[in-house]
Automatic annotation (TrEMBL):
Region called Disordered, residue ranges: 36-56
Organism: Penicillium frequentans
Domain of life: Eukaryota
Origin organism lineage: Eukaryota, Fungi, Dikarya, Ascomycota, Pezizomycotina
Gene3D superfamilies: P-loop containing nucleotide triphosphate hydrolases (3.40.50.300)
This protein's UniProt keywords: ATP-binding, Coiled coil, Nucleotide-binding, Repeat
The protein's name in its UniProt record: ABC transporter domain-containing protein
InterPro entries linked: AAA+_ATPase, ABC_tran_Xtn, ABC_transporter-like_ATP-bd, ABC_transporter-like_CS, ABCF, P-loop_NTPase
Length: 737
């Protein structure tokens, strides 16, 4: 039997106290450690075997994600959390939201958007009641308001009853619930603290136990035994609590909340008529939008957003950018978000948190500034190390020469000179700058005796993730367009026209980008082009030797379902079965390695346990092994981190076949389709774009960005920028109303 993985979080004592009733939008936790325990239960030892003396206590089996980290968030600041897939970003966010990290005050209100829609026992998805209408479910997701409303309703009904002792029972029941909560926190506090603070925590625990016992006695007291004075005191306490709760609810202004919730839902792409539909009738993507709306409406102390743009079209992304930018001006809420969308991080985040090598590092500025500073540091420290290595090599050669001459001629001066230079090599080589960025001075920056006086020069290395390499397209025996759409019209049985007179021709080497809002017909166009749907009118012509590699929106979900149905299936086994005799095991391993799935990850890890980013790589391997001339990629960035998106952009840039890309990721469309090297985003040196085409003969590609709108395919003469400008104007009008 296996149990679900558990998050274990530890930290040093901080200035925060677990029992602090004051919420805070700041977090300052030092010595943070996060371990995810294994789901496999420990083996039971044989009691007949003697225990080995001195054997250390076994540690919990698991993976250490963060070790001695410093989690520091300032109030009201918007942070972007960066890190490669698998480093523990989502685990850290979950540990914060569930307050598993001891240094987070219990009273702090944290709202989180996670990339999951798992239901709890009550049939809700992170506060969303699936059987309630969309608008009602979003409004009902605020736990603080729900609790205040529940208690106010409970007390109100007690006063409506004819029995005058009902308010006394009600206030005693509420006090009993509060005492249970206090005892839970006191137990947690006493377990985590030691020393003087631990002694105080144990005293608090005894006090909480005593208070719960008293509340239990009062709750169990016979009504006839309650004297008149106690009835009066408890009834007055119930009245005061009810007035306080009603005041809190009035301050929350339900009418204003409903107006704001409606505005948020419409901004995220909902239509007015869909706000009354049950959440359970929505697809997974629209449920995630509901969850995002429920987080935005809560006005928490800390807001955590894990890939909030995954299920949004570009209009929704631009709207969310503007909404969060305005939030930073009008609200003290601290935001911590993860996103693969570089433009979104740049627009929203003021500071960057980097999770790397089990540590948390911070940079004041957005992603573009961080990457620029990273490149400058790499260049500066690289040159410093090269110069110092040359100096060190010269000095060591001089030391060897002086030692040789000194020993040969018995020259004490030469030997002393060699010893002095050796001391300089040992003690003075290293980082030449202080922690403040100035020149290092021994008597100021490193007072006292140290074995090594200076830190080693560590040149930062790129963290772009594993690279990707696509096989060249199969050569065509004769020229001609790969695919041609002539006068394509498509309508469903309802006679609603989805595509209206579409004309498109794709040749080998072309780069075609398709953008548009959700529901505009992008996926329908792709399905017609690939032959999955027959057009109502028009003609689709393909090259007789055309091979197509198609990555669909549900490619990852299909692999996940396959992995669940075949628990032992690995990436290697899956691809070996699909390629048949066309590729041997060595070739399949090489292909998977070129996609970033090396060694045991490909051969030993079951498909069901691969991460989202790894599944994208496997899905790519499935479509490129036959060397297609046309790659059709529909929203491929959904499960990738931004490092992998960069690697993907570089791989696609050098592909010699044609690419048809459907995406709302502006960076990917600009780089792959338009061939532009973004000034704000660093691309790998082997990226092949417009600059490379201008320096080579006969390599010019056709590059076009289209927008599907009202059934028409409209070419954007200014590319992504033109489409984005139109959406910004639309969003500004939406936010102004």
């Amino acid at each position: 039997m296996t149990s679900a993985p558990t998050i274990l979080a530890t930290c040093k004592q901080t200035r925060f106290h677990l029992l602090d009733d004051n919420p805070s939008s700041e977090i300052d936790v030092e010595g943070l450690g996060i371990v995810v325990t294994s789901s496999t239960p420990p083996t039971t030892e044989d009691p007949s075997k003697p225990k080995i003396k001195g054997k250390s206590k076994a540690k919990a089996a698991g993976q250490e994600l963060i070790s001695d980290g410093h989690l520091r968030l300032k109030g009201g600041v918007h942070y972007g959390l960066l890190g490669r897939n698998g480093t523990g970003k989502s685990t850290l966010l979950r540990a914060m939201a569930e307050k598993l990290i001891p240094g987070i005050p219990h009273a702090t209100r944290i709202a989180i958007l996670q990339q999951t829609d798992d239901q709890d026992e009550s049939g809700s998805t992170y506060g969303l009641k699936l059987e309630n209408p969309v608008l009602e479910s979003v409004l009902g997701s605020d736990e603080a308001r729900n609790e205040a409303a529940r208690l106010a309703d409970f007390l109100s009904k007690s006063f409506e009853a004819e029995d005058p002792l009902k308010p006394v029972q009600a206030i005693r029941k509420i006090r009993h619930e509060q005492a249970e909560q206090k005892l839970f926190l006191a137990h947690k506090n006493a377990h985590l603290k030691s020393g003087a603070r631990g002694l105080q925590a144990r005293k608090d625990l005894k006090a909480a136990e005593s208070k719960l016992d008293s509340a239990q006695e009062l709750l169990a007291q016979e009504l006839d035994a309650i004297d008149a004075e106690t009835v009066t005191v408890d009834t007055q306490a119930a009245v005061e609590m009810l007035q306080t709760l009603q005041s809190q609810l009035e301050e929350m202004k339900l009418a204003d909340m409903e107006k704001e919730a409606r505005r948020i839902l419409l901004g995220l792409g909902f239509k007015e008529e869909t706000l009354g539909k049950k959440v359970s009738t929505l697809s997974g993507g629209w449920r995630m939008r509901c969850m995002l709306a429920s987080v935005l409406i809560q006005n928490p102390d800390i807001m955590i957003l894990d890939e909030p743009t995954n299920f949004l079209d570009l209009l929704g992304v631009v709207w969310l950018e503007n909404y969060l930018q305005r939030l930073s001006e009008n609200s003290p809420t601290t935001i911590l978000l993860v996103s693969h969308d570089r433009d979104f991080i740049n627009a929203v985040c003021e500071e960057i948190v980097i999770l790397r090598d089990q540590k948390l590092n911070y940079f004041r500025g957005n992603l573009a500034a961080y990457e620029e500073d990273f490149e400058a540091q790499k260049l500066y420290l690289g040159r410093m190390k090269e110069a110092q290595d040359r100096q060190k090599a010269h000095m060591e050669a001089s030391i060897r020469e002086n030692m040789k001459i000194g020993k040969k001629t018995n020259d004490e001066n030469k030997l002393r000179q060699a010893k002095s230079r050796q001391k300089k090599v040992d003690d003075r080589m290293g980082l030449q700058v202080s922690a403040r960025g100035g020149r290092f001075k021994l008597n100021r920056d490193l007072v006292g005796w140290h074995e090594h006086n200076r830190a080693e020069i560590e040149v930062p290395t790129d963290e772009r993730g594993a690279t990707m390499t696509l096989p060249d397209a199969t050569e065509l025996r004769f020229p001609g367009p790969l695919v041609s759409l002539e006068g394509i019209t498509f309508r469903y049985k309802s006679d609603r026209v989805i595509l209206d007179d579409i004309n498109l021709v794709v040749h080998i080497g072309d780069r075609v980008g398709i953008m548009g809002l959700n529901g505009s017909g992008k996926t329908t166009l792709i399905r017609v082009l690939t032959g999955q749907l027959a057009p109502s009118k028009g003609k689709v012509t393909t090259h007789s030797r055309l091979k197509v590699g198609y990555y669909g929106q549900h490619s990852v979900e299909e692999l996940q379902e396959r992995g669940r149905s075949e628990p032992s299936l690995t990436a290697l086994g899956l691809l070996m079965a699909e390629t048949g005799d066309a590729l041997n095991e060595g070739a399949v391993r090489g292909l998977l390695s070129s996609m970033g799935l090396q060694g045991r990850t490909a051969s030993d890890v079951p498909v069901a346990k691969l991460s989202g980013g790894q599944l994208v790589r496997l899905a790519l391997a499935r479509i490129v092994w036959s060397a297609p001339q046309l790659l059709i990629l529909d929203e491929i960035t959904t499960h990738l981190d931004f490092h992998t998106v960069t690697a993907l952009a570089t791989a696609l840039s050098s592909f010699n076949g044609a690419i048809l890309l459907v995406s709302h990721d502006r960076f990917l469309v600009r780089s792959v389709i338009e061939g532009k090297r973004d000034t704000d985003h660093k691309l790998a040196d082997d990226f092949e774009g417009l600059e490379e085409e201008e320096t080579e003969v006969n390599t010019t590609r056709r590059r076009s960005v289209y927008v599907v709108k009202t059934g028409k395919l409209n070419e954007q003469t200014s590319g992504v920028e033109q489409f984005e400008r139109s959406l910004v104007k639309r969003v500004q009008k939406m936010l102004a109303t």
